[in-house]
Structure formats: structure tokens, C-alpha cells
Specification:
single chain; three-stranded parallel sheet
Length: 78
């Protein structure tokens, strides 16, 4: 639903960040197609919750990557 709304109103927006992205490759590609930046937190280090995200970030262009801490709530976990 969020991607649908962003597509609808993207022309009225300047810039944009997908804060605390925890999705999969397909979702990330949809946001990138909207020329948005992708915010990655410590969730990417979580071996249980971060599996889809770990695969997705392999395809994330460095010029669209934002590193977020959201400390202490989304700290890296081993």
C-alpha cells in the first residue's frame, strides 16, 4: 500500500528516504525505481530477522544507501 501511494504522489515530493528498511529485494527495487534512498539499520546483522534484507542489500547501489543507527533499539545483533 505504501509503494502504491508513493507512486501516486511521487511527482509532488522532493527527495525521499525509506527509513529503517527491513524488506526484501522486490520491495527495495520498487523504492529504488521511485528514486528513493534506502535506510539500513543494524537489523541487517540479525541472523534471524535480517535474511531477506541481507540478500537485498547486495543489490543496493551505494549512491542510494543511508546507514542508520536508531540506537539503541535496532543495534546490530550477531
Amino acid at each position: 500500500e505504501q509503494i502504491h501511494l508513493l507512486r501516486k504522489y511521487r511527482g509532488s515530493l522532493v527527495g525521499g528516504v525509506v527509513h529503517c528498511f527491513t524488506g526484501n529485494l522486490e520491495q527495495m527495487q520498487a523504492y529504488l525505481a521511485l528514486d528513493l534512498y534506502i535506510g539500513i539499520t543494524g537489523w541487517v546483522c540479525d541472523s534471524k530477522r535480517g535474511q531477506d534484507l541481507q540478500e537485498a542489500v547486495k543489490h543496493l547501489p551505494l549512491d542510494r544507501l543511508l546507514l542508520e543507527t536508531d540506537s539503541p533499539y535496532l543495534r546490530p545483533k550477531g
